[in-house]
Design brief:
Blueprint lengths: L2 E5 L2 E4 L4 E8 L8 E6 L6 E6 L6 E3 L7 E6 L4 E6 L8 E8 L11 E4 L3 E6 L1
Parallel strand pairs: 2-11
Antiparallel strand pairs: 1-3, 3-8, 4-5, 4-9, 5-6, 7-8, 9-10, 9-11
């Protein structure tokens, strides 16, 4: 059974940092791209960042460029999201997901497996 377990969320003041982790179990995802999405209350889910299977190609939403960094550790079957200089508008539930392709993709329908999410709250 495939499971994605996010961790690292919490409450932080504006300007602070958090590091999210997403550990996959049940199978190896080294051949697939992975991504982080977020959904704020009353808003649609949006992609935040994505990384290719090799780790050599990444994508970032304009709203997070220069502040968030996605990375992956294939040996640990884990993807990370380093979040710096956080803003109140970053408050959301963050989900990791595994794509059905090796290349980075922003198309939500191309993500096959999803985690339950971890709450990130940034206070002003």
């Amino acid at each position: 059974q495939v499971q994605l377990a996010e961790s690292g969320g919490g409450l932080v003041q504006a300007g602070g940092s958090l590091r999210l982790s997403c550990a996959a179990s049940g199978r190896t995802f080294s051949s697939y791209a992975m991504g982080w999405f977020r959904q704020a209350p009353g808003k649609e889910r949006e992609i935040v960042a994505a990384i290719s299977s090799s780790g050599g190609n990444t994508y970032y939403a304009n709203s997070v460029k220069g502040r968030l960094t996605i990375s992956r550790d294939k040996a640990k079957n884990t993807v990370y999201l380093q979040m710096n200089r956080l803003k109140p508008e970053d408050t959301a539930v963050y989900h990791c997901a595994v794509a059905n392709t090796a290349w980075t993709t922003t198309i939500e329908d191309e993500y096959r497996y999803w985690g339950q999410g971890t709450q990130v709250t940034v206070s002003s």
